[in-house]
Design brief:
Elements (H helix, E strand, L loop, with lengths): L2 H14 L11 H51 L25 H16 L3
């Protein structure tokens, strides 16, 4: 007896259920809406695939540019080096006026004081 109410409830529930998602709705408005949704999803998938293809092309071009830049750097590094300087040519004279100068006697005295201080170990 307990089975009859359960079966009756199950039958009412099954009768009131909407059609399965794989079935096309019979309502023309709902059918048009379903078709539009499917078209929109297809267009989104096409756009996504196009975006991925463009990104792949961009990455390939970027890799090509980087490899060309590296090849140019290698070609510059392999280029001819400068010839050694001629030993007979004298370098230009430097203007020593702007550099600090310490007399030799002052340097020798400072060196002697440092050596003396390093010998006195406490």
């Amino acid at each position: 007896m307990a089975m009859r109410p359960t079966l009756l409830a199950l039958a009412v529930f099954a009768a009131s259920a909407s059609p399965a998602p794989a079935q096309a709705p019979r309502d023309p408005v709902a059918r048009d809406l379903t078709i539009r949704n499917q078209e929109a999803q297809a267009q989104q998938m096409i756009d996504r695939q196009r975006s991925v293809a463009l990104e792949n092309d961009l990455n390939a071009l970027d890799a090509r540019v980087q490899s060309q830049e590296r090849m140019q750097v290698l070609q510059v590094q392999r280029g001819p080096t400068l010839a050694p300087l001629d030993p007979d040519v004298k370098p230009p004279a430097l203007n020593m006026g702007s550099y600090a100068s310490i007399p030799d006697a002052a340097l020798a005295a400072s060196n002697a004081r440092v050596r003396e201080a390093s010998r006195n170990k406490r």
